[in-house]
Amino acid sequence: MSEPDTSPEPTDPAETSDGPADPGWQRVHPLTPLLRSWQVLAIGVVFFGQDIGESIVSGDGLGSGIASDVASNRLIGVLAGLAVLAAIVLWAYVSWRCTRYRVTAEALELHQGVIARQHRHAPLDRLQAVDITEPLIGRALGLAKLTLEVAGGGNSRIEIAFLTEAHARQLRNHLLAAAGGLQSDTDAPPQVADSPAHRTMTVPTGRLVGSIVLTGATVWIVGAVAAVVASIAFTGELGFTFGLLPVLLGAGSLMWQRFSRGFGFRIALGTDGVRLRHGLLEQRTQTVPTGRVQAVRLHQPLLWRLTGWWLVEANVAGYGAGGSNDGSLSTSIVLPVGTLDDAFTVLTFVVPSLPHEPAIVTGSSHEAGFVAAPRRARWVDPVGWRRHGYRVTDHALLLRGGRLRRHLDVVPHARTQSCAVWQGPLQRRLGLASFELHSTPGPISPRCDHLAAPVAADLLEQQATRARTARATATDAWLSPARG
Amino acid sequence: MPWHPDAVHADPFDPAGVAWSPVSPRLATARRITTLVTAAVPIVVLALIAVTVDTGWPWFVAGAIGLLAAWSLWAIGRQTRSIGYAERDEELLVRTGIMWRRIVVVPYGRLQYVDVIAGPLDRMLGIARVQLHTASAGSDAAIPGLTPDDAARLRERLTARGQSRLAGL
Predict the structure, then answer these.
(1) What is the mean pLDDT of the segment spanning A207-217?
(2) Smallest Cα–Cα separation from B116: which of B106, B134, B133, B128?
(3) Shortest CB distance from B102 goes to which of A417, A420, A468?
(4) Neighbouring residues of A32: CB distance < 8 A, sequence distance ≥ 6
């Protein structure tokens, strides 16, 4: 990763000869329309080139090819193709001229659109995450796209495409500093250096491959292969191998997607927050300020108990319920695979003042200080009832569950939205109730099942009070000097 | 350990010192009308089939649907009587259900916006529904069956309290 260049000013507005009238407005890189519509252009080039190629291959040569084109009226087709290409280039130039953005002290503004003008305004104090994405073509050209998640509901994220890599990084650092409360006068240069990282962790490729192999998809593949082999052995018809195709395609594409999204996964924990970098073809760098993580989950699928690996996911407002299976949105996975130590390091960074006791995750309820489900819960959940429980710390609520597939959910008090208790008829018979905590849309829905009913009532009351106190004392400016 | 001895008999659906406000019985009427219409359509269709094709099995299915509808009509009354809401100092409580009971606590400071919704049937019967929105999709607390005046007043109170306690995400 090259260092940002020394000049602190991003693209000077005076550089562009017909610069926008108001100061501070900046343009995106001129190659942007090319990158946005490269598929259309590629099709046009292929179509055009095929035409020329045909005439060459048929042995007539280029000149006689055009002469025969005139004779057979194909020249009109060629001219029409040229006209379309020219129109595309003109439209690309106009849409580049119409796109501009500006960073003020309170917001990021983006104006774009040729026919349907779109003015988007994102307040910086609602910043949830800043992502820098470099698609494959962009990496070849050194360009990147910056996305700002604001969680305004619906489609409120702002996407500035494309900027040079260095410029995108400068802009990101500036946005994070401004949102974090670092006071900067308008004359002083914006914050451009990457913030220092206290701790960096990487996921080795071997471990990533192992984690992908040890999933349910592999079980499906093995089962399908076994079934096909058995049916071939019994009936002697080789046609059964075609039954393998859909399973292989489905599972294979899932595995490839996970590998390609998780390749070179690197976490940096610093003053900025959590910075994740990952991707094989399309490289993505996500930065989530610490105060914007709504909930964290440590999760261990069944097969990973053999190797002791854990998965860490987070709810980030704005990333939505994409979770781990969405190809287009940013991933909500903070650590795709790691040892318990790694997972705990990430967890204690995101939720400070968490006691550093791995027994929280793996130990029994009593030794971990959890309030557990009572014994009669075994009638409704015979497998996992021993592991259900909750624990309250100064800053967060820990909810635990799962016997075979263990998980631990951590929700900071200040990030609680609302809570609920519900009770089915069987639970009422046994005097149990389930408690659930509502958080922003994401892969985590924190809940604790089958607590004793009075305990659930108490937790409901106390949690509302704790959340209110935490909201009153929480501050949004995590970088301001007053916080020390 | 946050477990107080005097909480032994605490019921999560009946917190101490909370006065629950009921909703209008016209909600039961609205739901019953909807159930009747929803059940009548397949019953009529099945009756037509039975008459034209002259077989017996559609009558059984129609009978089953009719029994289900009759049970629904009876259960709706109990369900709407079980809906209650309460405004406390810092949060709104909504509880529903008889067999599957649920109570939601929504802090005022987390309310993003409040909707008052009334479909055509609701308007005819003079009721409306107040829908709360927070940043979470799960806390979709809704209070159906309020009179339009009550609903508008509740929305104003909630919005005012929400704005005075608004917290960042």
Answers:
(1) 88
(2) B128
(3) A420
(4) A96, A99, A143, A161, A162
pLDDT in tens, A54-96: 766 776 555 555 555 555 667 787 788 788 888 888 888 898 8
pLDDT at A20 over 60: no
Tell me if B12 and A420 make a contact (CB, 8 A cut-off).
Answer: no
The reply to whether B19 touches chain A by the CB within 8 Å rule is no
| pLDDT at residue B137 in the model | 77
> How many Å apart are CA B73 and CA B64, to the nearest integer?
14
- Report the residue of B134, B140, B169 to disrupt the A interface, i.e. the one with the largest count of A CBs within 10 Å: B169
pLDDT in tens, A103-128: 988 888 999 888 888 888 888 888 88
Q: Do A151 and B169 touch (CB under 8 A)?
A: yes
User: Is residue A328's pLDDT more than 70?
Assistant: no
Contact (CB<8Å) B136/A418: yes
Contact A371 B2 (CB under 8 A): yes
State pLDDT tens for residues A358-392.
Answer: 778 887 777 778 898 899 999 998 888 888 899 99
The 10 Å Cβ neighbour count of residue B114 is 18
Distance from CA of A412 to the nearest CA of B (A): 12
Q: Which residues of A touch B168 (CB under 8 A)?
A: 125-126, 474, 476
Maximal CA-CA distance, chain B: 70
| Chain A residue nearest residue B102, CA to CA | A422
Residue B109 and residue A471: Cβ atoms within 8 Å?
Answer: yes
CB A197, CB A275: distance < 8 Å: yes
State pLDDT tens for residues A123-177: 888 888 999 999 888 888 899 999 998 876 666 788 898 899 999 999 999 998 8
B3 at A interface, C-beta within 8 A? yes
Contact B101/A458, CB-based, under 8 Å? no
**Are the Cβ atoms of B135 and A317 closer than 8 angstroms?**
yes
Q: Report the share of chain B in percent with pLDDT over 70.
A: 92
Contacts of A151 in chain B (CB under 8 A): 135, 169
Is the model's pLDDT at A13 over the cut of 50?
A: no
- Give ipTM to 2 decimals: 0.85
